[in-house]
Amino acid sequence: MLARHDAIHASLADRFAAIYFLATPHRGADSAKLLKKILRVAYDRPYVGDLSPSSSAIQVINDEFRHVSADLGLWSFYETQHMKMFGSLIVEPESALLGYREENQVPMAADHRSICKFDTASDPNYTLLRNALASTVSVASTEALLETKHHSMKHLSKYLEAADTLDDEFSQLRELRQESSCNWILHKKTFIDWKEGSVKQDQILWIKGKPASGKSVLASFIIEDLRQSGKNCSFFFFKHGDKSKSTLHSCLRHCAYQMSDADGGCREALLTKSADGVQLTHMDERTIWRLIFQSGILKQAQSTHFLVIDALDECSNASVFFDTILPSLHSDASLKILFLSRDTPFISQGLSSIHVRFSCCCISEKDTLPDLRHIVEGKIRLLPAVGTGTQNGLVERILSKSRGSFLWTILVLKELASCHTLKDVNQVLDDVPKGMEPLYKRTLSLMESAPRSKALAKAILLWTSCAIRPMSISELNGALKLDLNDVFPQLQDSITALCGQLVIIDKVGKVQMIHETAREFLLGETLESEFSIHSTSAHTHMAKVCLQYLTSREMRPPRVMRRRNSTSIGPRDDFAFYTYYAYSYHLSKADPASLELFDLVESFLKSNILTWIEAVASSKDLKQLIRSSNHIRAYANAFSIEHSPVNKQVQDLQQWPRDLARVTAMFSPALATAPSAIHSIIPPLCPQKSQLHKTAGASRRLKVLGRANEQWDDRLLGINFHRGQPSSVCYGEDFLAVGLTTGAVHLYHLASYQEYRVVQHGESVNHLSFKKKTALLGTCGLKAVRLWNLRTGEELFSFKSPPRPLNLQFQGKFLMVASQKNFVVSWDITEENEPERIERSWVECDDSKSVLSTAGALALSEAHKMLAVAYNGRPITIWDTEESSVIGTCGKKLPTGETSTHPVTAMVFNPNPSIELLAATYLDGNLALLDPLEDKQVECFRANCQSLAASPNGRLLAAGGADGIIYLFEFDTLKLLYKVKSQSSFIKSLCFAKDSFIFADIRGTRCTVWEPEAMLQDSLGDDSSGITSNSTIEVTNVESTANITTISALTQSNTIYCGKDDGTVGCYSPSTAACLGIISKHNVAVRHLRSWESGQMIWILSIDIANRILLHSTSFSKGEFTAAELRLEMRLKAAGAITDLLLNISEWKLLLSTTDVDYLVNISYEKTVGDRTLSCLAARQTGRRWVDHPTDTSQIMCISGESVEIRFWKSFTETRNIALKIPEAMVDFLQLRKAMPITLRGTPMLMMELFDPTRGVMSIGVLENLDRTNMDPKCAQLDSATAETVGLMDTPDDNADELVQSMGGEKEHLQFHEIKAESFNVSHVIGHSSGSLVFLSKDSWVCSADLSERASVTASNSQAEGEIRATRHFFLPHTWLAGRREMPSALMQRDILLARGSELVIIRGYADHEC
Asked: Cα separation of 988 and 697, whole Å?
C-alpha cells in the first residue's frame, strides 16, 4: 500500500501480481487476547493488541487495501480444523476472507499451524497451494509476455511506419460480404493445393478476374478463412488512388509488421534489425526484401506464413515483385503468396518470365453467380415497386445483364431503389447498359442533364479522382471552398445526391471513387463528356488551389520571431494539412507551361515557404521535405524545358529542391526540436547563394558574420591531421574511427563528429573493426593487434600480429586477422584470461595441392561465411570459413571465356546474406561484379580503382582510385549512381556509415565525409524518388586547410585574435569577421592565445604545441591594422605540453602549467621565478586550473578536484590551502575542464566545469563564500620575505608554515554546489556574461542560463534548491564541430565568436533570439 501511494516506488508496486493470505485475520481474532496475556509474562509485544477484532489499525488497513487491490490476484486460504488444546478455530473463516468479488476463497483441511507447514510433497494441502501458485505464475507470465509483445509491436509499428488502417479496410470489406458468399473458392483445387499443399509444390497462386468481379471481397474472405484455420496470414490491399497504399515499399513494411505480430521469430528478427540501426526509410523495395525478409524474418519464422495481396495491378512499381521477390522465393522460405488482380499483359508477362512454379485461378461468372443471386434476391424484396409475383423475373433480368460484375449489380439496385412503379423498374432495366463502362457513360449522361450544381459535381469528381490520398469530408470542403469560392454546409448530402453513382463516403469519413474502374473511366483519354478529367489539367488546377492557400495570409510568416514555438501557430483549416503534403505532388504532375501556376509557385517560394517548412517540421515528418524536394525537382526540370535554362527564375526554381534536401539533412535536429527556427535561425546559417539564405525577413534574422560556403556541398565535412597521415578508417554504430601512421586512433561521435577519444595503438594502424552492439574496437598494425573498450579507453588485450595482416574483423565471439601468409588467426575475446591464439590455414584446404604464393588481396565475409583470396597468376579462390574447405574459384572473364589471372587490388563481399556477390578491382583498371559460387561475371566496369567499400544494407558499392574519383554503384547491378571528382589524390580507403548514405574516405592528411545529395533524394522508397541517371559532382579542392584552434577577444579595443593549426596568429575584424593581418607565425599549431591591453598597446601572447612562447605588441586604431613587433621568444623546457596559463599584467608574470609541474616566469627578463612539482596523483588525474583571485589581485588560486590552493603572484608562495568538498556521487573519475571567476548578485563566486569521461556527463557548479580565501594580514609579511625566493615552493620556511597553520586552513572547506537546470546537457562552456552562463549543449544548441535564478543554498542542503531554465538561442550544424573535442569560442559583449574550420564566425546579438 505504501508503494502504491509513493510515486518513487511505483515501479515496485507494479511488479506485484498476486497476494496469498494463509489464515490471515483480516478482521482480527479472539485468540489475540489470550496470546497477549501469555506474551505479557515473558515479553510484551504491543502489536499483538492490533490483532483483536475491535482494532482500529486493522480497520484502517482493510479500508485502504480495497482501493489498491483491484488489479491483484487475491487468494485467501482458511483453516477448517481446531488446534490441540483449543476448542475453536484460531482464525474464523469470516475473518480469514476479505469478501472481495475477485477473491479466490479456498478451504484447507488443516489447523492454524499446519496450514502453512507440510510434512511431505504429497500432502493434499501442499498440492492445493502449489497448484494455486502455478496458476498465478502462469497468468503473470502470460500477462508479462503480452506486455512485452505490446511494447515490441509498438516499437515495430514506428520502425516499420505501419499504420492500423489495413484492419479498417479489411473490416469494411468483411461487412460488405454477404453470408455464405465466396464459399466457392474453398472448392477450387488450385486454392486447396495452395492452402494445404507443401511449400515446395504450391507456393504462388494468382487469382485473376474481370474489373468489379468481387476480388477485394474475395480477398477478405480468404484472409478470414486462413486465420480461422490457424494459419499465419498477412495481407495488403493496393489502392491506386492512395499513394500511401500504392507502393511495394509500403506493402512490404505492412506485411513485415503483421508477420512479426503473429510470429515471435519474425518479431525477434525485426527487433534485431532495428537494434542494429537498419533504417527502412533509406531502402528501396529490393533492399527491404533481401535484408528484412530473406536474411531476416523468413530465416527466423517459426511456421509457414501466408501472404494475401489484393489489386496487384494497382501497384505503382510491381516490376520489383516479379523480377526480385518471386524469383528469390525458395522452397524453404516458409512463405506462400496469393495475389489477386485483373488479367493484365504486364502481370502475365511478369509471371512467364520468372521461371518459378505458380498456379492460376480465374474468377468466372459461374463462380460468382450464386453470390450475385443472393445479393439481388435480398435487395429485390425491399423494392417498393416490385411485387412477389414479379421478383423472380426481375432477378433473372438483372443477373443476365450483370456479366458477373458486383459493382454493376449494386449500382443498378441502387437506381431501382428510387423507382416507385413497376413501369419505372422495367424502364430502368431496359435503359441500363451491360458492362461497367456503358453504365458509367449513362451515369455521366444523367449528370449532364441535371439543371444545377454541375460545377460542384465536376469539382467533387476532380478532387476525388486525382487526390494523392482519399480526402476527409472536411478537407474536401476546404478545397471546394477555395476552388469554387462558395460554401457547402451539407457537403456529405451533396456528394451523395450529385455523384452517388461514382463517389462514396466510407465509414471513416473518407471520400473515394466507388471503384478503380470509375477513376480510370473518368481519366480515360477517349471519354467525351463535360465531366471527363484530363490528368495534367486536373493536377495543374489542384496545384493552383493548394498554392492559393499556401500563399494566403494564413500562411504568412510571423512578424515577431522571438520566443515563438509551434504551439503558437493558430488553428488552420483541415485542408491545410492536405496542402502540406499534396501541393508538391500535384505540382510534379502539372503543366509546366502554365505561367499562372509558375507565378503562384514563385510567390510561395519567396513569401511563405518557411511557414510551410515549420508546419511540416511540427508534424515530425521531415521526410516530407525530401518528397517535396523530389516533386519540385521534377516540376523544375519540366519547366526548364519549356523556358530558357539561363533565366534567373528558372535557376532559382532549380535551386530550391537542393535547399530542401540539404536543410533536412543538416538541420533536422533543430527542426525537430524547434520548428520555428526555420524563420530566423536556420537561413543565415545556410550557404550565401542558397535560396533559403536569401528568403525575406533578413532584418529579423540571426545576424551571422563571416565567410560561409556559397553553395551546398556534397562534402559534409573534412578532418585534418597535422601529426601523421590517416592509414585506416572505419564506421561503427556510434563512432567514426580514423587510424593514423603515428599509432593514434581518433574516435568521433556520429551525431556531431566531435572528437570523443584518442587511443594509442603504438604503431601505424592498418586495420580497424568495431564489434556490433558493443563498445569494443579492434586495431591492427604490423606488430600488434589490440582490443579496446571505447567507453573507458582501456586496452583489454594485446596480441602479436600475424605476418603482413590483410584484414581485421569480428565474427561472433572471435576477433579474426587474415595474414598474407595464407592463414587466419582468431582469438575468443569472451575469455576472461589471455585468449588462446587459434590458427587456420586455407592452403591445407586447397584441393589443387599446388604451392600458393602470398595473397595479394583478401575479403572476409561474416554474413556469407566465406573468404576470397587473390594471388598473382591465379583466379580468385573462395574458401568456406565454417567448413574449412575450398568452394572454388572465380574472376572476371576474358573475351575467350577464360577466367582472368590479372592481379587483384581490392575485393569486397556484399554484406547482405541474401546477395551472394563479390566485387573485385583489377590492376588493369576493371571493376568486376562476380557470382563467386557459380563462377559468373555479372557485370564489368572500366574504372581505375584501388579501394572498395559496401554499404551495410548491401545496396551500394563505393570505389575510389588514385585519380581522386569516387564512384558509387548499385551493388547488384553495378549501375553507376554517383561520381565525385577532385584533384588527383590517392584514395587509401573508404567506408560507409550505418545509414548507408554517408561514407568517408582518407587521402593525404585528411579524412573526408560525404553525404551525396543524390542519395538523399533516393532515400524514401516511394514514387517521389529514384535516381534515373548518374550524377557527377566536381570538387575542386579537398586538401587540408588551417583550422582555428583558439580565440582571444578584447572588448575595450574591439579586437579579435585567432591562432591556427598551421602556427599563424591573425587579427580579425569584429565587423566583418575577416582576417586583417598576421601577427605571428609558429612552426606548429597554436594551442594557447591570450591578449590584453596596456595603454595604447595591445599585447598578444601565443604558445604552440611545442611549448614555444611568443609575445608580440601592436596597436589597433580606427579599424586600421598595424604590424606586430616581437617582444619575447622563449621555449619552456618541460617534459609535457603546456595545458594552462595565467597572466599578471602589472607584475609581468606568466604562470605556465603542464600535467605535472607549474612554472612562474618573469616575462620581462625570461626568468623562472618558481615552480612546483605535483606529488598528488589525484591532481594529475582530475586536472587543475589557475584563476586570478576574485578580490585580491596579488594572489592566484589553483582549483583541483580536492582543494583550492592560494599563492602569491610575486613569489609563488602558498598562503592557504582550503579543502574542496564535492558530492560523493560526482567524485569518481571527474576531470576539471574550466574554472572562471564570476559575480552574482554582487557576490564573487567561482564557476567550475567538471566532466565525467566514463559517463560523458558534464556538471556545472559554483564555489561560494570566497571571502574565506582572503589573505590574512600576517601573510603580507610572508609575501615580502619570500618575494625573491627561487626554487621549489613545496617546502616553505618555518615561518611560512606557522602562518599558514595559524589560519586554520585544514579546518575550513569550500562546498561545490551543482547547478540544477532544466534541459542542461552541456557539451562545453563558452563563457559567462552579465550573470548568464553561455554554453554549447550536446545536441548542438548554443544556450544560456541566468545563474541569478539559482536559489540560495542552506546549510542543510548541499545542492542548490530549485532549477534554472536553459534558453536555446541558435543551432550549430554538426559540420562546424567536426574533428574537434571542443569548439574554439569566446564571448565579446553581446556577440559569440566561433571557429568554423578555418574561418571566424561572429553571431551578433545572440541573446535576442530564443527557440
From this structure: 46
Residues 6+ apart with CB under 8 A from 188: 361
> 578-616 pLDDT, tens per residue?
999 999 999 999 999 999 999 999 999 999 999 999 999
Could you tell me which of 275, 60, 19 has the C-alpha nearest to residue 152? 275
C-alpha cell belonging to residue 54: 475491535
Reference 859, options 800, 804, 811, 918; nearest CA is 918
Pair 1349, 1364: CB distance under 8 Å: yes
Maximal CA-CA distance, the chain? 132
Cβ-based neighbour number of residue 1306 at 10 Å: 11
Element (H, E) at 1017: helix 1013-1017
Collapsing DSSP to helix, strand or coil, 442 comes out as helix
Q: Which residue has the higher pLDDT, 501 or 1253?
A: 501
pLDDT, tens digit, 9 for 90 and up, residues 1007-1053: 999 988 777 665 555 555 544 445 556 555 555 578 899 999 998 88
The pLDDT value given to residue 40: 54
The interaxial angle of helices 473-484 and 535-550, nearest 10 deg, is: 90
Per DSSP, the chain holds a count of helices (H) and strands (E) of: 36, 72
pLDDT of residue 1178: 43
Strands (E), 961-1043: 966-970, 975-981, 989-992, 999-1003, 1006-1010, 1031-1034
Of the candidates 793, 792, 797, the one whose C-alpha atom is nearest the C-alpha of residue 780 is 797
Q: Are 428 and 419 in contact (CB under 8 A)?
A: yes
8 A C-beta contact, residue 1332 and residue 1260:
no
What is the mean predicted confidence (pLDDT) over 26-34? 69
How far is it, in rounded angstroms, from Cα 275 to Cα 283?
A: 17
Q: What percent of the chain has pLDDT over 90?
A: 39
Q: For residue 511, what are the β-bridge partners?
A: 471, 505
Whether residue 46 is predicted with pLDDT greater than 70 in this model: the reply is no
The confidence score (pLDDT) of residue 1299 equals 37
Q: How far does Cα 1408 stand from its chain's mean position?
A: 31
Question: Parallel, antiparallel, or unpaired for β 103-108 and 73-79?
Answer: parallel
Q: How far apart are CA 814 and CA 838, in angstroms?
A: 10
- Cα separation, 1320 vs 1315, in Å, equals 9
Tell me how far apart the alpha carbons of residues 224 and 219 are, in angstroms, rounded to a whole number: 9
Cell (9 digits) for 225: 478463412
Q: Cell 481446531, residue?
A: 82
Cα separation of 871 and 852, whole Å?
8
- What's the pLDDT tens digit per position in 243-259? 888 999 999 999 999 99
The DSSP bridge partners found for residue 1407 are none
Q: How many CB atoms lie within 10 A of CB 426?
A: 16
DSSP code at position 113: T
Q: Is the pLDDT of residue 127 over 70?
A: yes
Read off the pLDDT band of 38 (50, 70, 90).
Answer: low
Q: Which has the closest alpha carbon to 384: 337, 349, 339, 416?
A: 416
Handedness of CA 285, 290, 292, 293 (dihedral sign): positive
* Residue of 308, 176, 244, 242 whose CA lies nearest to 516: 242
Q: pTM (2 decimals)?
A: 0.81
The candidate with the shortest Cα–Cα distance to 466, out of 240, 169, 624, is: 240
What whole-number distance in Å separates Cα of residue 536 and Cα of residue 1197?
A: 77
CA angle 1024, 311, 533 (to 5 degrees): 60
**Nearest CA-CA partner of 973 in 926, 948, 998, 940:** 940
Half-sphere exposure for 365 (CA within 13 Å, toward CB): 8
Q: Which residues pair with 817 in a beta bridge?
A: 808, 825
Classify residue 293 by its DSSP letter.
I
What DSSP element (H or E) covers 626?
helix 623-642
C-alpha cell at 1142: 595565467
CB 1053 within 8 A of CB 1069: no
Strands 947-950 and 956-960: what pairing?
antiparallel
